[in-house]
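To fix ideas at the outset, we first show an illustrative case, written as a sequence plus integers encoding its fold:
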Amino acid sequence: MKRSASYILGIVAIAAVTLGSCKKYLEVEPISSFGPEFVFDNAINAEKAVLGAYAPMTGDQGYGIRLSMYYTYDDDLMMGQGGTPYPDNERRDIAHYNVNANNTQLAGPFNQLWLGVERANLCIYYIPRMPEYTGGTTAQQAKLKWLHGEALTLRAQYYLELIRNWGDLPAQLEPSFTQTDLYKGKTDRDSIYEVLLKDLQLAATLVPWRTQASASSERITQGAVRALRARIALYRAGYSLRRSPVQMVRGSDPNTYYQIAKDECNTIMQQTADHKLNTNFRSVFKDYICGHAIEPNGEILWEVAMGGGTSALGDSKLGYYNGPRGNGTGLGNSALTVLPSYFYMFDSTDLRRDVMCVPYNVTNAGGTLGSFRTLQTMVDGKFRRDWIAPNVNASAAQYFGLNWPVIRMSDVMLMYAEADNELGNGPSPAAYNAINQVRRRGRGKPLATADPTIDLAGLNKAQFFDSLVKERALELGGEGIRKYDLIRWNLLGTKLAATKAQLQVMAARSAAPWNTYPTTMYFLNNSTTLTYAGSYYKPNVTPAPSGYSSVAWLGTAINTTITTYYAAGFTANKSELLPIPQASIDANRNLKQDYGY
């Protein structure tokens, strides 16, 4: 897959990033003797500097595993790795809300995100000062302005990730070499959000739309800028855990930010030549993300380009850490669990269920399905090894070069519907149209054709919001969004508790419909496609059909494999955020721990 002229080139040319920085605070080691007078001497080198600012998004400390698959769980859809050891002062403690400031998985991502901020800051500082920015040819000016807009967008993404995981943090909005004191205290996140929203408003005027750009769509284009601005506006409008008092508080003047989100999403939705839904939900993941190809409709507005080549610095463990195992049961971690309650959130007509939820492992022989999984050990499937091209079913490698989707078009449409509903006394026809297109696509129906069996209609504001909360779960599960959605809606604790209660009822089969669902499922042996006898939603098929494997399904095993660990340490008004790594607290006399840590 084309990799944006390679982030590695950018790392070499980004020497200026490390000049004058505070080593203890940012944990940055000098990697080149090139100074800013060389890096920002011409557009070619400036582009390498911007590519270097992309690089901290990748690898084990970025969206390669920790930011995508450690920090984003547990939510009401999926659970991070269970089992022992627990507590482990590592990924299990993060997922199950038992984390402390000395957790071994905190410092790397925290520092790498700040590295991204610093690299972006250097580009934001120097590129507009280049003579060609205002005095060059039309082509030179357009190139440098695009690079400037990319850097502004990258900084906004890094800061969003820092804020939604750690809350209030220092406002480091200039390169470190310009600062007289790098020992900064915390700045209220709303002030930082305001800067980011203005930055992205500017960036949208600097960056071309996808069809105007000559580079790969892995680079930031205008749709990505506007979608990120909408997402940040929703965070600004929503709830977050505050320092004083330590409780969940909604952002001030929320309608201002809902309007920003609505306007930005609407602008994107009008650019149908640049961004629209792929009519096939499965294809987005199987053919393009797992197929190492660019989705041609622009459904994926922005994806983190992973370099491939088995690198902890520039690749991802998508398909290794999560998803079904290969070679029977031996290859891969299958560390993320789809909750039984999430599986049954899908109705029998929803095609997204079998994309999201995988009840099997695969062999090394042409993707033949191997051992089958029980309901309580089901794994996520959007980034599955049996879809990866070329075939990796028998590969013991940990890095498969799968990109991480940051924002998809369906997310934009659902953000639009949410903002529209919040601004009025209920949803407008345009909001219904947006959510109903997503719903139709999820069931394999034509996007533009009304379908009364699928479409939402006649809902009041609260009912539409509840439907949207569910639709975002069905559409965006496994993509690192759900936990943060629940936090900004102030629903995380409520949904975790409700899910625990539902799992108990399911395990006991003590109420409808769970007492009518099968206790055993039967899956066809030696098949390359998932084939089962009977229904997930009706009593058992009897007798067991010939050629099928029987698998224990809905029953008490939920208690032993899931409920022991699921969100076990969650504490309201604390667990919504992570503690700042202790090493960073120790290195900065003005940086304090908050939120009960």
About this structure: Confidence is low (pLDDT under 50) at residues 1-32. The two ends are 43 Å apart (CA to CA). Residues 26 and 430 are 45 Å apart (CA to CA). The longest helix spans residues 138-166.
